[in-house]
From TrEMBL:
Domain of life: Bacteria
InterPro entries cross-referenced by the UniProt entry: Autotrns_rpt, Ice-binding_C
Organism: Puniceicoccus vermicola
The name this protein goes by in its record: PEP-CTERM sorting domain-containing protein
Signal sequence, renumbered to the chain: 1-36
Length: 581
């Protein structure tokens, strides 16, 4: 035996052990020793220490037992410590079923240097329609270690379940699933909130928040490692809609999160906001907001804003991802998919990249209608601001119908190719330069970025800057931005002759314009009003390259302005020469 017990207590332990298999099958409590007793905290020992045997219902040491905290010895103020883990313990399940209306709270303190190891963990999993709050505090560690177990928060309808670990030093969990308001057995609404500890390492097959009409929130701590195969946030199943949020806890300074698959080496699958069953026109929303901290996330398959799945569904799904520091990579991603034959079952996905954040995507699909709706009101949107960077291999529109939206809203920052690959932006994508900020297109050496859509503008004369030794090809044929085009490096090729100036700021830059976009009047005379300002040194040289007229700089000290007037010939002015073509 693990402890010295009276004969009565031994018989009690053996009796309780018969119940363990049923608890294990239930999942949330995991597995436990066949000799474990089911005990509860009654706080009758004269202090709050776990090591005081009089605080437990069996008046024995709790090591190895299945422990429940209920309304007994609970207090009316959240955050008030009701029990203290004062030495290392290995226990079976740890269950909190304290509930009521703002009257019954438990706070577990784990002292510095102390570790509480559990194989089962659940909060407010009764069928009561109640409010429950449990807090953890202290400089110790809570460790859940049961790769086949389920950590469950909330179960029944109209429950409000809050678990706050923000005062705890560390939380480590290895589980099969972590469920926040998921697998709930009613269509009535509820709220589930989990705030993590200061340092967190979570390994699981799935973390799921939301279900039926359960609103859920997951607030991250100072340092977070999430090794999870499937991150599902925002399942909505029935009428009423759901709201799901994942963000850093308030008041933290430079928090961080790392997201990988369960093995910690590959990408997790992300499903953000999806309507699973008919929802009578209600909106399911899910938001990941990692602004104010740094993110290092690797995703394999990403689906954001999946409208109701099935026929004639009316449930919309709205997904949004914000970040402003660090990097997010997605192998494949779909933003905004309509699975319904009704436009009212549409989906919308939005990614906002700001600050110094970097988003990289292999294959990105914006706005996809696979349900047969004749019109769709939502779609997929990328928003790029500040010094943010967006790199991809393929950006395409999904199946399109009237009203479909497939947009890249480019206020400032950099768009470029994913390292080692070309970039292709499809013809149905709306690529808009917003305002007069810096719009950089960067292409690495040996690669080509082909923009098959027209580049438009709003909010002023928007310009474009080409960097990198690779090729940027504007193949849309009807670009309408009116600001200057700054050529710093590599090759800039266009099928549109724009109204703004083309400015050479480096001897490494080369410009090609499709002659079909020009009016030819004589031997390679060009039509237009463009000014080519050479600020990089050397002499401008124009040559014929297939269907294109190419202009580049011959390295030679020079200060040259190449001016095209109406039906004017191309004139090159150099320090030593004057050439008329």
């Amino acid at each position: 035996m693990k402890k010295n017990l009276t004969m009565a207590q031994i018989l009690k332990v053996r009796a309780w052990s018969l119940r363990i298999p049923a608890i294990a099958v239930a999942g949330a409590l995991g597995t436990a020793s066949v000799w474990a007793a089911d005990i509860s905290w009654d706080g009758s020992g004269g202090d709050d220490f776990w090591s005081t045997v009089g605080n437990w219902s069996d008046n024995a040491d709790p090591a190895g037992d299945n422990i429940t905290f209920n309304n007994t010895a609970a207090v009316g103020t959240a955050g008030t410590v009701t029990n203290i883990v004062d030495q290392n313990y290995n226990v079976g399940s740890l269950v909190y079923e304290n509930f009521g209306v703002d009257t019954n709270y438990h706070t577990t303190q784990i002292n510095s240097g102390v570790t509480l190891n559990v194989t089962g963990l659940a909060f407010n999993t009764t069928t009561e329609l109640d409010t429950s709050q449990t807090d953890f505090t202290g400089d110790g560690a809570l460790v859940y270690n049961n790769g086949a177990g389920i950590i469950q928060l909330g179960r029944a309808a109209k429950q409000t379940t809050t678990v706050d670990m923000s005062g705890l030093s560390s939380f480590t969990a290895t589980a099969d699933q972590i469920l926040l308001g998921a697998n709930v057995d009613s269509s009535n609404s509820g709220i589930t909130t989990l705030t993590l500890a200061g340092t967190n390492v979570i390994t699981a097959n799935r973390l799921q928040a939301g279900g039926i009409r359960q609103d859920s929130a997951l607030y991250l701590g100072q340092s977070n490692t999430l090794n999870i195969d499937e991150l599902w946030l925002g399942e909505g199943e029935r009428s009423g809609g759901t709201t799901i949020n994942m963000a850093f806890d308030s008041g933290l300074i430079d928090p961080n999160v790392t997201i990988r698959d369960k093995a910690g080496t590959g990408g997790a699958d992300l499903l953000l906001a999806w309507g699973k069953f008919p929802s009578d026109g209600f909106l399911h929303t899910a938001t990941i907001d990692l602004r104010g901290g740094s993110v290092d996330a690797q995703f394999d398959t990403v689906q954001m804003g999946m409208g109701r799945q099935g026929i004639n569904g009316n449930g919309k799904s709205f997904a949004t991802f914000y970040f402003d520091a660090g990097s997010v990579h997605m192998n494949t991603a779909v933003l905004g998919r309509t699975n319904s034959s009704s436009k009212f079952g549409a989906g919308q996905g939005n990614i906002y990249i700001s600050g110094t954040g970097t988003l990289t995507v292999g294959l990105l699909t914006l706005g996809d209608n696979i349900g047969g709706a004749d019109t769709v009101e939502e779609g997929g949107f990328i928003y790029l601001t500040d010094s943010a960077i967006f790199r991809a291999t393929t950006i395409q529109a999904g199946a399109t119908v009237a009203g479909s939206n497939h947009e890249i809203n480019f206020t400032s920052g950099t768009i470029g190719n994913l390292s080692g690959t070309d970039l292709t932006i499809g013809s149905d994508i709306k690529l808009e330069l917003i305002g007069t900020g810096s719009h950089v297109f960067d292409v690495e050496a040996g690669q080509v970025a082909t923009i098959n859509t027209d580049i438009t503008q709003s909010g002023g004369d928007a310009g474009l800057t080409k960097t990198g030794d690779g090729t940027l090809y504007l193949a849309g044929g009807d670009d309408t931005y009116s600001g200057d085009t700054l050529l710093l490096d590599g090759l800039f090729r266009t099928d549109t002759f724009l109204t703004g100036d083309y400015i050479f700021e480096s001897i490494m830059a080369t410009f090609q314009v499709n002659e079909a976009a020009l009016t030819v009047g004589g031997a390679q005379a060009l039509f237009g009003t463009q000014i080519f300002n050479n600020t990089g040194g050397g002499t401008l040289e124009a040559v014929d390259v297939g269907d294109y007229t190419q202009i580049s700089i011959v390295p030679e000290p020079s200060s040259v302005a190449l001016i095209f007037g109406l039906f004017a010939s191309l004139t090159l002015l150099g320090r030593r020469q004057r050439r008329r073509l």
